[in-house]
Amino acid sequence: MAVSRTPFIAGNWKMNLDHLQAIAFVQKLAWALADAKHDFADAEVAVFPPFTDLRSVQTLVAADSLPIAYGAQDVSAHDSGAYTGEVSGAFLAHLDCAYVIIGHSERRQYHGESDADVNAKVLAAHRHGLVPVVCVGETAEDLEAHGPSAVPVAQLRAALAGVDGAKGLVVAYEPVWAIGSGQAATPEQAEQVCAALRVLIGELLGEEVAASTRILYGGSVKAANIASFLREPNVDGALVGGASLDIDEFSSIVRFKKHVGA
Predict the structure, then answer these.
(1) Exactly one of 113, 174, 191, 232 is catalytic; which is it?
(2) What is the pLDDT of residues 71-103, one digit of tens each?
(3) What is residue 174's DSSP assignment?
(4) Contact 129/93 with Cβ under 8 angstroms?
(5) What pTM was computed for the model?
(6) How many CB atoms are closer than 10 A to CB 84?
(7) To pair with 250 at 20 to 30 A between CA atoms, which of 8, 42, 66, 168?
């Protein structure tokens, strides 16, 4: 039975925009989408600001009843305690975050996060009612040595150990070789890996969860190529990096249906 999955366009701001800039950005994004008469049934929109911006974004979204979701870029595996510099899922939940990015390649590369760390954070997100956006992806060396889907599938298998699929999940396939390079994967490459990830979700969490889970592509996504990715049956949206900091470009990505073509 076919399941309809609302496309999900997520903007990962990384370490950009302070809380005042965040307020201005979200206001302008909301205005741009309203002016374009964007139907949020066509695509859910979410932004992922730095931790220091989240309270400001929460206040703005609540006060103006903006139809824009938001989440954090990371979460601690621990709920509380002597963990200097970490941020608990409980804190994020109290800021009304809907989502949290977990296992981004920059966290894996620069902070040494292992598959076990990613799994612990997914479980922590679920303990606090947050939907994890689990990032997986291979380096150019991985691609050469193991082929296109082996590493992302292994990463996701580890991330989902002991996870209750009923609590919600988004998966983002981000080939490390494409992030920030200007050279995106082809739609066919993205579809091949996303299809393999969906098969794995079905094996681990059941076919119903697999059918309803949104799988995103990330890596040099822009308005000029988003429609080609969203034509693929197993690509349900995008995790957008640099382009999410440009309001015109990001709002155009969100409105991908305007330039899908036939």
Answers:
(1) 174
(2) 999 999 999 999 999 999 999 999 999 999 999
(3) -
(4) yes
(5) 0.96
(6) 4
(7) 168
